[in-house]
UniProtKB/TrEMBL annotation:
Function: Catalyzes two steps in the biosynthesis of coenzyme A. In the first step cysteine is conjugated to 4'-phosphopantothenate to form 4-phosphopantothenoylcysteine, in the latter compound is decarboxylated to form 4'-phosphopantotheine. Catalyzes two sequential steps in the biosynthesis of coenzyme A. In the first step cysteine is conjugated to 4'-phosphopantothenate to form 4-phosphopantothenoylcysteine. In the second step the latter compound is decarboxylated to form 4'-phosphopantotheine.
Domain DNA/pantothenate metabolism flavoprotein C-terminal as annotated: residue spans: 6-214
Domain of life: Bacteria
Enzyme Commission designation: 4.1.1.36, 6.3.2.5
The entry's keywords: Decarboxylase, Flavoprotein, FMN, Ligase, Lyase, Magnesium, Metal-binding, Multifunctional enzyme
Organism of origin: Asticcacaulis biprosthecium C19
The protein's name: Coenzyme A biosynthesis bifunctional protein CoaBC
GO MF entries: FMN binding; metal ion binding; phosphopantothenate--cysteine ligase activity; phosphopantothenoylcysteine decarboxylase activity
Cofactor: Mg(2+); FMN
Reaction(s) catalysed by this chain's protein: N-[(R)-4-phosphopantothenoyl]-L-cysteine + H(+) = (R)-4'-phosphopantetheine + CO2; (R)-4'-phosphopantothenate + L-cysteine + CTP = N-[(R)-4-phosphopantothenoyl]-L-cysteine + CMP + diphosphate + H(+)
Segments crossing the lipid bilayer: none
Location of region: Phosphopantothenate--cysteine ligase: 11-217
GO biological process: coenzyme A biosynthetic process; pantothenate catabolic process
Similarity field: In the N-terminal section; belongs to the HFCD (homo-oligomeric flavin containing Cys decarboxylase) superfamily.
Length: 217
């Protein structure tokens, strides 16, 4: 563990996509490389925080000094998140699938003669909202992400209110963001709406680490 201003702070970061199985060989997932969440976990560990990184399936190595817990589904990510409480700060960066197939077949589904296939999906739990509204272990600071292609500030404000978190990082994904090192992010909290200086995921991670340090006092 590094020595730094966040020594003694327990911080949980969710990152990557979730994968929701349809059968043993197929499933539904979200576009997320995990790079932004991993960069945030790394920046926090460098400042001395005790970081737990709860990660969906990604092709990235765990940053040094970070405890990584691998999960696949939203249900597993929620369970791991609740198991990681209490913590001082929770940062939800994961691109959680909003829906999962109602039933996951235990055998590979065979192609039939039908030209169409219907699958019933059920809603996944909202991890950020569950942690934000936790009655016993609500962290001091809960931060979420919102990827939007328009109306960044309005959607970020709405999400802040509905999910009950303290800050939302509003991510403009109308440009080439997925899988790249670049990112364009603003931060919405009760004090206002500020564009984060810099354009890389490392810039965003360093800003978030400084913001957390400032907010914890
Ligand atoms: O509602 P939306 O998916 O846009 O919210 C994005 C934020 O909520 C992100 O911080 C994401 O990690 C979190 N989230 C979650 N669980 C879900 C859906 C989103 O934690 N099921």
């Amino acid at each position: 563990p590094h020595k730094g201003p966040l020594n003694g702070r327990r911080i949980v970061v969710t990152a990557g996509p979730t994968f929701e199985p349809l059968d043993p060989v197929r499933g539904m997932t979200n576009r997320s490389s995990g790079r932004q969440g991993y960069a945030i976990a790394e920046a926090l560990a460098r400042k001395g925080a005790d970081v737990t990184l709860i990660s969906g399936p990604v092709a990235l190595p765990a940053p040094g000094g970070v405890r990584r817990i691998d999960v696949e589904t939203a249900d597993q990510m929620l369970e791991a998140s609740l198991n990681a409480l209490p913590c001082d700060v929770f940062v939800a960066v994961a691109a959680v699938a909003d829906w999962r197939p109602k039933q996951a077949a235990t055998e590979k589904q065979k192609k039939g003669p039908d030209a169409e296939l219907s699958v019933t999906f059920v809603k996944n739990p909202d991890i950020l909202e569950t942690v934000s509204k936790h009655l016993d272990f609500r962290p001091k600071l809960v931060i979420g992400f919102a990827a939007e292609t328009s109306e960044l500030e309005a959607y970020a404000r709405a999400k802040l209110a509905s999910k009950g978190c303290d800050a939302i990082l509003a991510n403009d994904v109308s440009d080439d963001v997925f899988g790249s090192a670049k990112n364009q992010v603003s931060l919405a909290d009760l004090d206002g709406f500020t564009a984060i200086p810099g354009t890389t995921k490392a810039d965003v991670a360093n800003f978030v680490a400084r913001y957390i340090h400032k907010r914890l006092g």
